[in-house]
Each structure stands twice: as C-alpha cells, then as structure tokens.
Fold these 2 entries.
Entry 1:
Amino acid sequence: MANDDRDILEVLKDELVFIEKGGYVRSVHAPWKLNSTFQESATCLNYGYPYRAHPCSECHLLDFVAPEHRSEMVPCHHITLDAAGDTVKDLEADDNESRLARKVSDWLRTKIKELEEERTTQALAGCP
C-alpha cells in the first residue's frame, strides 16, 4: 500500500506534462546516458535524493505493478503499458526514446481518464 500523501491523479497528470515537455530527452552533454522513466521526474519519491530515501513500496505507482514484480529493483519499470504487454523496462532496452515516451504517455492518459471517471462516479453516488 502506498504511503504517499500526494494525489495519484495529480502525480500522473504532472508526469504526462513532464513527458510532453521533453522531460526524458537525452542531454546534449551526455547523449549516451538514458534517462530513467519515472525515476528521473518528480513522480519518484526519491527524485532529487542522492540515495533512496524512500522504499518503492511507499509509491503510488506500485499499485500499477503486478504482484510478482513489486520486489524488483525498479518496480515501476514493470508496469504493463499496453495490451501487447510492453513495460518501461522492455522499451528502455529497445533504446527507442520516442516509442517509450509515446507508450508511457498513452498509458498515463488511459489511467488519468480511468481515475477521473471513477471519481466522478463516486461523487455522483455520494461516496467519499
């Protein structure tokens, strides 16, 4: 269970904006260095820390990771992004930044829409 007091809907929306603004594009100063999706944005609880201050088990993204991958070193890289079963880990291994960004953006849009619809339904039903 996530121990993150941030609103998951806002976290996902911020990540989408980050990607759309080119947040994971390789630096011209270090073109060999692939930026790590989710880990190198404010989505990650450990963003900005020189070490892992928080375990991944506290992150909202863990809710999107299949149970068998939750103990991986970077569990959020095992989120299934599409019907074909692509994950961030798979797509990073392909070294195709634009495809990775597109797949993650599509996944984010889908999850944002689902959460918004769920909250609308709950609000109409009078649920907290």
Note: The chain has one domain: 8-125.
Entry 2:
Amino acid sequence: MNKLSVVELSKQFGKRRLLDAISLELAQGQIVSLFGRNGCGKSTLLQILFGVCKADTLDIRYNDQELTPKFLIKSQILGCLPQHGFLPKSMKVRDVIPLFYPQSEAQDRIFYDPYISTIAHQKIGALSLGQARYLEVILLLYMPHQFLLLDEPFSMIEPRYKEAIKEILISRKAKKGMLITDHYYQDVLDISDRNLVLDKGQLHQALDIGALQELGYLAARSI
C-alpha cells in the first residue's frame, strides 16, 4: 500500500502562522476528510501540496522517499480537483473525454457511464453544476494518480449528483488515497474513513460528528 506523508508543514502570512508544523498521512484505500472554518488555511494547505503555493517548511514523502510537490504532480502520483470548474465551456463532453483518455479502456467506461452517456452531445457550458462536477470527478478518478486532493466536490450541486459522486469515489478508493475538503460535511462524513479538523494552525482528529462540534467546526444547532 502506497503512502504519502506530510511532516512539519508550516506557512506564515505576516505575523499570522496559518499552518503550524502540521503532519498528515494519506494511504491508498482511504478517504480522509479535512474540515475547518473559512480562512483557517484548508485551501492554502491543498495549494501547497499541489505546488501552487510555497510553504515556509515542508517535508513530503512518498513511501518514505522525500520528494517535491512538483515531482509528485509531474510523475502523476498526485492529482487535484480544484474548487472551480476547469473544463472548457465551449467544448462538447464527447470531445473533452478523448483529451484525457485517448484510445483507452477508461475512455469507454466514461462514455458509457449512465450519467455521462446522456450528456455526451452537450457543451460543458450548458451542463448543470452537478453534471459538470460529476464529469470532472470521473475524468480525474480514472487517471493513474495514486493520490487525489478534492476541493469541494459536493458544493452547490443537485442531490442525485452528490450521490453519484459518492458512489464513484467509493468504487475507486481501492486504487486511490484521497483528501477531501467541503463545507457539506455530512456528504463527506458519509464516505470518509478518517476526519481531520484544521483549527488555529493545527490538525486534530475527529472521530464523529460530535467531535466536529467539540473542535468548534460545527455549532450545536448544526447537529
């Protein structure tokens, strides 16, 4: 089982220490959730791991071998689903899929997926938020990356597509290690194996929804 470990990750903006020597581990076959209030540093953490933002200190290891985020991405060890849509809105779904999967078995799986086959002739820009997000997720999940960062996969989409995304994430997790952050906490809890809360620069384990309240992520009325 492959592992991706992060040790002593720190990031400071001015006098504010946003991430304070935090550590976390991802393993294939596990979905790890990352919760935290707005501005706590979740997006910064994902951006550092994906090489978009530079950390003050960072030790990241793949199976105990120290590597850089740039190498992890270039080697297709680590992939990322950004918060906002990344597919060209003017292209049709049927034309986008071969860009990711030219002449492969995965291409057929995606084309014949029941949620994709019905929208194959539509332009990306004409899709609902749920349809577009499901397409982005399934395109990413059949790629060879062993580890994935998923930024708000459930945000603002229709319930049936939330359920479809959960199903495809669970079906593919045997081959992937995933870190998911999303404010739709119940959707994440439905599929996560471990839960983390980022608060005041530190990561804390959360065993259940009650712990999310105790750690200050959820108010009592949310439960």
Note: Residues 106 and 142 are 6 Å apart (CA to CA).
